[in-house]
């Protein structure tokens, strides 16, 4: 081996060691950086005419388990959807009141029954009659607030859809630009690992909103499609997801008549749920909340309000066919054709609120009853205790029992959603741990750094020895 060949070998070794130390330092510095994938230097032997000419740096390898990454992103989307539903149901259960705290509808109805029983023991007591009116007002207010809360949460779900659509479009546009940048970088021989890290971060963001499948394209670009086959990205072309938010949502509004669904490149996504081929993830969960879960709760509240209104009206023989009863639909009689929105409009009759003795006499009484007569109060009590079904074919129950069943159903839905969330979280956590296990290992990187240091020192010593040899030759 000539001195020049030995010198070239040593120089190439120093260059490789320098590049490797740079990569190891980057790995250690970004060990906790979200989206960063471990790098390593790819080396090969450099030879000319069968003679070793040192080492060549072929490039920087970015280590990613693509199959595991795809599974983790799928689990992340499922978890995002389950967490959104579970969180909304927890909030809704809190909003509708706790039975233990005496703030639920069932507790309010029980308070009315107790006040009526107390008044029946002394029907001449204006104080006890007033307590009945107060408890009726609290009961009606609980229904009003519950219906208003459900409407507010539907509006929040609709606003969440609009926000997520904006985020989704921004992420897809960013991925389209990264596709262009990655292809260009690889074409001119520039390391694209940093661009791929950015790509991974945006892919994670998209995957929480919409389930995706990634496909490779020429030059390092990617395409994204949903499991149902909708194309979101292909090279430099990003799809545009459209949505028009509804600032105010009433109980009668529903998709597709009054509420908007998604569009993809200006065309409806299809399906009867407004989200179609983009279902799944947190975006799909927002549609489920807006169009299924919350409307079902609102409908039940309206049915409970109608049940209460009818019970009190049926129990008062002094009322005419068109007279408003003790409970009213905005101070009027209930509609014979619809109950939509009744929970928000339910109110105590102002006549009874101004004259609590009408509880004893009846709302339409022409003459006052005997102050000691509790007959009408007994009718109110019996009406609340009567076993009736809330819907045709439903299980009958007292007014309080039907309300308690409603509260229990909300709790059961919340519990079921939390169980799904727990399972999804465990699956995601397992996959995430496996993914991180293949990431940057600080101990391993430190060991690699020691090896690099030894290799650098060895090559530097070779150069020093060659320098001494050259000096000796020149001194001859």
UniProtKB/TrEMBL annotation:
Domain Flagellar hook-associated protein FlgK helical: 100-313
Record-annotated Flagellar basal body rod protein N-terminal domain positions: 9-36
Region of interest called Disordered, as start-end residue ranges on this chain: 357-376
Annotated compartments: Bacterial flagellum basal body; Secreted
Flagellar basal-body/hook protein C-terminal domain mapped to chain residues: 439-475
Keywords per UniProt: Bacterial flagellum, Cell projection, Cilium, Flagellum, Secreted
Pfam family, one: Flg_bb_rod
Keyword Lipoprotein: no
Record keyword Protein biosynthesis present: no
Family from the record: Belongs to the flagella basal body rod proteins family.
Matches recorded under PANTHER family: FLAGELLAR HOOK-ASSOCIATED PROTEIN 1
Protein known as: Flagellar hook-associated protein 1
Taxonomic source organism: Rubellimicrobium aerolatum
Taxonomic lineage of the native organism: Bacteria, Pseudomonadati, Pseudomonadota, Alphaproteobacteria, Rhodobacterales
Gene name, Swiss-Prot/TrEMBL: flgK
């Amino acid at each position: 081996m000539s001195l020049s060949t030995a010198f070239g070998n040593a120089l190439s070794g120093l260059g490789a060691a320098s590049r490797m130390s740079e990569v190891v330092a980057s790995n250690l510095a970004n060990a906790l950086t979200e989206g960063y994938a471990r790098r390593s230097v790819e080396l090969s032997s450099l030879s000319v005419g069968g003679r070793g000419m040192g080492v060549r740096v072929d490039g920087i390898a970015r280590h990613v388990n693509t199959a595991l990454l795809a599974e983790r992103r799928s689990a992340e989307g499922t978890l995002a959807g389950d967490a959104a539903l579970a969180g909304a149901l927890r909030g809704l259960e809190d909003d509708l009141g706790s039975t233990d705290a005496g703030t639920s509808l069932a507790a309010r109805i029980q308070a009315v029954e107790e006040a009526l029983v107390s008044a029946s023991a002394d029907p001449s007591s204006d104080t006890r009659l007033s307590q009945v009116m107060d408890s009726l007002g609290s009961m009606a207010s609980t229904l009003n607030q519950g219906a208003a809360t459900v409407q507010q949460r539907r509006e929040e779900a609709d606003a969440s859809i609009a926000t997520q659509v904006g985020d989704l479009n921004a992420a897809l546009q960013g991925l389209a630009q990264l596709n262009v940048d990655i292809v260009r970088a690889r074409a001119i021989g520039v390391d694209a690992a940093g661009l791929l890290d950015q790509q991974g971060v945006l892919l994670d963001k998209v995957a929480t909103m919409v389930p995706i499948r990634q496909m490779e394209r020429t030059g390092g670009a990617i395409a994204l499609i949903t499991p149902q086959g909708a194309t979101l990205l292909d090279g430099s072309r990003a799809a545009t997801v459209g949505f028009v938010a509804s600032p105010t949502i009433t109980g009668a509004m529903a998709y597709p008549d009054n509420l908007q669904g998604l569009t993809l490149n200006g065309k409806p996504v299809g399906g009867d749920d407004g989200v179609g081929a983009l279902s799944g993830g947190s975006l799909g969960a927002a549609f489920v909340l807006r169009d299924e879960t919350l409307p079902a709760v609102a409908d039940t509240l309206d049915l409970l309000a109608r049940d209460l209104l009818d019970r009190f009206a049926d129990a008062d023989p002094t009322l005419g066919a068109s007279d408003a009863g003790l409970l009213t639909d905005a101070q009027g009689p209930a509609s014979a054709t619809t109950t939509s929105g009744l929970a928000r409009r339910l109110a105590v009759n102002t006549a009874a609120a101004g004259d609590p003795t009408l509880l004893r006499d009846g709302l339409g009484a022409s003459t006052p009853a005997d102050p000691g007569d509790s007959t009408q109060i007994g009718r109110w009590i019996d009406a609340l205790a009567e076993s009736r079904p809330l819907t045709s074919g439903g299980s009958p129950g007292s007014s309080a029992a039907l309300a308690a069943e409603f509260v229990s159903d909300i709790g059961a839905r919340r519990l079921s959603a939390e169980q799904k969330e727990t399972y999804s979280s465990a699956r995601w956590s397992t996959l995430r741990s496996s993914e991180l296990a293949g990431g940057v290992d600080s101990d391993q990187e430190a060991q690699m750094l020691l090896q690099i240091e030894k290799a650098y020192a060895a090559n530097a010593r070779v150069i020093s020895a060659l320098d001494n040899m050259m000096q000796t030759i020149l001194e001859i």
